[in-house]
Amino acid sequence: MQMLTNAGYGYFRDELYFIATSDHLAWGYVDFAPLSSWLLRGSRTLFGTSPHALRLLPALCFAGLILLTGFLTRELGGKRFASFLACGSVLLAPAFLGEMTRYSMNAFEPLYWMGSVYLLLIAANRNRPKLLLWCGVLLGLGIENKHSTIFFIAALVAGLALTRYRVLLRSKWFWGAVAITVLLAMPNFLWQVRHGFPTYVDLSNVKRTHKNIELPPLPFLKQQIMRFNPLSGIVWIAGLAFLLFHHDGKRYRVLGATYLLFLAIMMALKAKDYYLSPIYPMLFAAGGVFWEAITREKRRLLWVRYALPLAIFSLGIALLPFTLPILPIDQVLPYQAKLGGNTSKTEVGQTGAALQQDFSDEIGWPEMVRAVASVYNSLPPEVRAKTGILAGNYGEAGAIDLFGPQYGLPKSISAHQNYYYWGPRDYTGENLILLQWDRRSVERWCKTYNEGPTLNTPWSMPEEHYTIWICHGFKMPLAQAWDRLKHWN
């Protein structure tokens, strides 16, 4: 399903950035851990950089997550119906469809988390504590994939300490797993140390500027329900209750405790609502087991085995255009309005967008590059040779780097996020094409300037509607001004 539809609108902004970072492999980046860029480098080598090729690994991860949900359901005691309900709920959950349609570290994260949970259950249920070492491998890779894994580990260890699973904390295999996790996470940690902990600086800037929408506890909980299809809350909420209170589920209480602790951590940190997504497959698995057990024990409820999947899956199918690019772009909003609204926003800057960010951030990149190319190629050859393209953010810079060669454009420069570390290349500031600069900033930094075309691509993000400027003579050597231009958020 994903591979048939996932190239519908275009490259996502973050995908353009990931492509750029995969050309600059390192043990860390300003705003994310390195593993996803290394994996993308391998994927691009084998399959290329088309949207379908780029999104092959996320599609495979999604298939693996559904399979893993089935394994978790079986390990919790579920049979055929439980697996069908749990796997179907994950398959059609808007949160997973959205996050695993595009290339990012979010596509890999649930596999590391739920893989470690599955191995933990086997280690405890079947007295195979050596499997904890493989938990360490998965969680170490999880940290190298996304730093939020650290908070998941904290919740999981606290959950072990609060339940009968605490016996595992005294095992040499547990401490071996800790050692493996630390060892695998060490390359990125050392990179952070050498660079002055840029990820912490970046996150601090986000917090200080209130870039993200910060939800109070009740709206945050509401978003957890809405993100996974409102009707599927009947499954995962029942799964949480099963793990905490049901006589058959209490022996797996560590999973329920881990979820509640992780939820509390994310609420305390004012995290984005989707940061919890990777933890939900285990709740769907437990919910499948619950509904299978209750309909088996109470035969008068047997109809639930037909009605519940029918209702959840029908709504899930109806919600597909909210997350997959399967409708013409001008039909998305009317369709969403018929079903009662749009998707949630996680950043303040999204509030002016007509579409949700996932779609708007796929619109307008080729048009932007063509406009830049028209400006660049209009310059005399001797001027062109000394002209750099200074992008305002990594999406614009990544689009120039990906689409620009077909127009004869040079690699872009930008002081945004990790592009800052790649520097101004050999440009001095003699001539610059400026993207996403306002007139006031242009007058401040440029000796003389010319106004170029204005970008106004329908459906693109509001910040991508701006005038292109040609700057003649930066008032300060570009290398000297670079730190002042640095923009981490």
Q: What can you see in these coordinates?
A:
The protein folds into two domains: 2-330, no CATH class; 365-485, no CATH class. The protein is built from 26 helices and five strands. It has helices spanning 2-5, 13-22, 35-47, 51-54, 56-75, 80-91, 94-99, 109-125, 132-145, 149-162, 172-194, 198-209, 217-227, 233-245, 253-268, 280-297, 304-318, 320-323, 332-338, 357-360, 365-378, 381-384, 394-403, 419-422, 439-445, 478-485, and strands at 387-391, 413-414, 431-434, 446-454, 467-474. A five-stranded mixed sheet has the order 2-1-3-5-4. The radius of gyration is 24 Å and the shape is globular. The model has no long low-confidence stretch (mean pLDDT 93).
SSE arrangement:
Elements: H1 2-5, H2 13-22, H3 35-47, H4 51-54, H5 56-75, H6 80-91, H7 94-99, H8 109-125, H9 132-145, H10 149-162, H11 172-194, H12 198-209, H13 217-227, H14 233-245, H15 253-268, H16 280-297, H17 304-318, H18 320-323, H19 332-338, H20 357-360, H21 365-378, H22 381-384, E1 387-391, H23 394-403, E2 413-414, H24 419-422, E3 431-434, H25 439-445, E4 446-454, E5 467-474, H26 478-485
Parallel strand pairs: 1-2, 1-3
Antiparallel strand pairs: 3-5, 4-5
Helix pairs in contact: 2-3, 2-23, 5-6, 5-8, 5-16, 6-16, 6-17, 8-9, 9-11, 10-15, 14-15, 14-16, 21-23
Descriptors for this entry?
single chain, 489 residues, mainly alpha, 2 domains, 26 helices
- Which strand order does the major sheet show? 2-1-3-5-4
Strand element count? 5
Number of DSSP helices?
Answer: 26
Radius of gyration: 24 Å
Helix content: 55-70%
Euclidean distance between termini CA atoms: 34 Å
